[in-house]
Amino acid sequence: MTIPRQSSSAFRALTRRLSALFAASALALSATPAFAAIQDLLPLNSASPNYASVFGGVKINNTTPETDPFKAGAEMLSAAYAYLHPQSVVYNNPAYRERLFVLLDHRLGLAASGSNLRDIGWSWQAAYAYLLFKHHRAAELTPARIATYEAGLAANNTAIISEKPLIYEDGVLAQVWLNGDVRLAMSVYFAGQALGDANSLALAEKARAAIDGVMTKTALADGGTRYVGFWGEVASYHEDTVETFIYWWKITGSPTAKALLDSTLRYSVVSNEPDGFTEQSSNIAYKHMYNNRHNEPACLWKAYLYDDGYNYHFGRKVETASSTRLLNTILYQPSRQLIVPPTNVGVFFDGNIQGPRHRSATWGWIAHGRDVQNGGPEQLAYSQPQGYDGRMGGKATFVGAFALGPIANKTSLKGALDTVSIEFKETAGVDTDYNRGTRYRFLAQDEQTRVITRENFGTLSTTYRVSKRTSSNATPDWSTGATPWVGHQLWVLTPERVIGLVQIVNDAPATIYGLDTRLVFTGGRKGIMGSFLDLVYDATAKNFTFGALRAKIHAASYTGSVLQQRIGISDPNSTDDFSALVRINHLDTEADVPRTFAAGAARHWILIDITREGASPAPYAINVTPGHASFAVLQFHEGARKVRIVQNLGANSRSYTGSFNVGTTYASTSLHRSWSDVVSPLAVVNNIATVTDTVPGHGHMIAVSSAQPADHTNSFRTSATVFP
């Protein structure tokens, strides 16, 4: 397993921190009091601001079922607690019981007929509500209802367990769809306890083992949780995961669930901007800007559980008398600190993405170093590392950037770089999936990614196979998704810019229907959040303007048309035009003319520079070694520094020697390596610095000439130092 590296000592430090985290969690849990039976209702805190209105979301005296499955699930849970809980302000009110029956009759009636199965919106709440009702008020259930409800629960249980034997039989972490699978597994467990027969109890034990022994191993290093495979979840999914695991822990007392919750403490402060933007460019290709939920409820619950001031900053606005969230009442704690996170935090290492992240008041970027096809360094903290490949398609991008401004339409986003890569068109016809690709191929597999993080800059290099894999239902053999195309990307990220050399080459004969650079910008999601931002292209200067973002094409190996298309960021919905897909130097034609290339004949590259409004593109940027099969070398100058970065494109070590003119502007020049902690000063003779070293396979090194002392040390900051 290849792990994207920070450096050897940084990696060891990360491992030590992870080990300490799990040791601390185990110590804390050793003192956890015994939990009551699962049929016992969780205590309510009458001091909570929403105590009097928590059950206001139950539509009493309404005989029409809720059609939205997620709203139905939330209402079921609230109705059950409203009617059954002695602390409820509407305890024993039959209107709440009748509304619960309306909801259960509808959903479990459908399930009993074999439809509406494996639905994450309502399944666990229905099972739990029936378990509670059967335990506390069995006499109020008619035989007909019991028969329907139990038939529906049994059918749902069988469908859930049989769908994913890798999780429930083999304990494979890599296939877990966390925010969905934990809800479905909870349904099986609670239904099994309610049904009570041997088969149902056996399925319930499989579900419990999957939650406590598999799904609880999905934590990332800086508080994130995984999506399908080893992707990080978007913020709204993380909220659902936290909510579900809190219920599981509170109801069952699971110590591993509590440890998972403990580990998520830093997620929001790392991923959420203080002024209303949740960064999602480091997440999966088709969930960016997915909805307008920014994880505030989960932040509030963590503030209650841990008295964490950062989480209370993000979560306090949902601590209101109008909130109908049941967990607000269950978890409420009156004494909480408040810490406002800093706006300008600069560059730090984000363990969730295993790469550098930058944040200022109006601008930020990420470099996604995590290999989403393997478990990453967190797996070292567990006794049973997972060797099974991830089952989700690979990355659409390795870098992202965003510009911020005043909040409007639920976000402060004023433009985000969502995707950048070179793509090819594999088959003729109209593209139907702008985010994962059905005809155009751009997703990565088998990546070899390396990063460097410093206090003032970050780097990323990667070599990967372009994949045709787009689904989570793929076989574990990744070679079946391989194409004859290899991607190389080399990026330098500074407070001023994100600048990169992006390449693609075919290592076997290939016939394609198009080739271009794929660039995707987004201003949000229409009908959800954000705004329409004009995309303007200056063909003479080769500059793009999108909201407050700027993109400059410094040079490219080929020419062609520049096509612009307005798209939806989460799906190709024609009504969502808040995003823009740009195909630069597009070689496709309307006639879909096939082009055949001999092996190695189609090496193409582009040098692109991303800045924000008010910043200028680099005054000098070149591809030093165009067409070179062994090394990629990018050189650029900016106001603060002069840089040369060298990437080994192959798997074998190679020696490199090259010189560049640093002039007399800066006092110091140093060399940083992706494979070593050593930072070496470089001698400058007649304004020339010579870069020389043996570069390991897929490694890179960067020479920096600047007057800033931090540019010449191996120091970097982590989330723990930025947000103590």
In round numbers, the mean pLDDT is 90
Shape: elongated
Main beta sheet: 9 strands, antiparallel
Number of strands: 30
Fraction in helix: 25-40%
Which structural category fits the helices and strands? alpha+beta
Count of alpha and pi helical runs: 15
Strand content: 25-35%
Count of spatially separate domains = 2
- The residue ranges in which pLDDT falls below 50 over 5 or more consecutive positions are 1-34
How would you name the oligomeric state of the polypeptide chains in this document? single chain
Return Rg in Å.
27 Å
Roughly how many Å apart are the termini? 32 Å
What does this structure look like?
The chain folds into 2 domains: 45-208; 346-722. Helix content is 26%, strand content 27%. It has 15 helices and 30 strands. A hairpin with a 4-residue loop joins β15 (535-538) and β16 (543-546). α2 (69-84) packs parallel to α4 (123-136), α3 crosses α5 (143-163) and α7 runs antiparallel to α8. Mean pLDDT is 90; it is low at 1-34.
What's a quick, concise take on this entry?
This protein is α+β, with helices and mostly antiparallel strands.
